[in-house]
Specification:
Layout lengths: L1 E6 L4 E2 L5 E2 L6 H12 L3 E6 L11 E4 L3 H11 L5 E4 L6 E3 L18 E3 L3 H7 L5 E7 L4 H11 L4 E5 L8 E7 L5 E8 H16 L1
Helix pairs in contact: 1-5
Length: 206
């Protein structure tokens, strides 16, 4: 199979030097990309800014903003069999990016925020014969929120994990289907979880 993989954070700039982002390390997405290659699949890796080496044999497409990730994914997805969306994209961006650097004045400032492109929802809406696996990082009402995300974004399955996964070498996840049932669960290093998920996907979709 040829798999589109997203990984890492995105950045949304306030001005030319400051940005909004999150603490995603990209380790889960990169572990999935490496596991997919080891299983013999082709991988198109769309990656936000991370300090990780490219897994051997993967084609990495570097992006920074959510809009750039959306554009790269939409260009690559038609030639793929499915997508595993492990990236932690920013949900909001400033309505206007300031040119230069915002100077301190001693007074409060207000920045109007608007929603970014919903990359996973757009992939799900246009999937046709392709399969879509999303990731949901949830702190409260975890399964309920993950199921809502699965349905809203037209995913086939969704991987539920907790905020403790951010920046960690380990992960504990549940795989949910469209009925909200737990198909399976895995715990351990992100490398081990990635291998289990890729093996399952190969059996399910291969």
């Amino acid at each position: 199979m040829r798999i589109l993989m997203t990984a890492g954070p995105t950045r949304e700039y306030l001005d030319d030097v400051r940005y909004l982002s999150n603490a995603s390390s990209g380790r889960m997405g990169y572990a999935l990309a490496a596991a997919a290659r080891q299983a013999g699949h082709e991988v198109e890796l769309v990656s936000g800014p991370v300090e990780l080496p490219v897994p051997e044999g993967c084609r990495r497409h570097n992006v920074e903003t959510t809009a750039e990730m959306r554009d790269a994914c939409m260009a690559l997805f038609p030639e793929c069999d499915g997508v595993i969306a492990a990236a932690a994209v920013c949900d909001y961006r400033p309505r206007r990016r300031i040119t230069g650097k915002i100077a301190k004045t001693g007074d409060p400032i207000a920045i109007e925020m608007i929603e970014t492109d919903d990359v996973l929802a757009e992939l799900g809406a246009g999937k046709q014969h392709r399969w879509v696996i999303g990731f949901a990082l949830e702190a409260t009402s975890a399964r309920e929120n993950a199921l809502q995300k699965l349905r809203a974004k037209n995913c086939d399955f969704i991987v539920l994990n907790a905020p403790s996964a951010i920046g960690s070498d380990d992960n504990s996840v549940e795989l949910l289907d469209g009925s909200g049932s737990v198909v399976t669960e895995w715990s351990g290093s992100k490398v081990d979880v990635a291998r289990e998920l890729i093996s399952w996907a190969g059996t399910q979709f291969g």
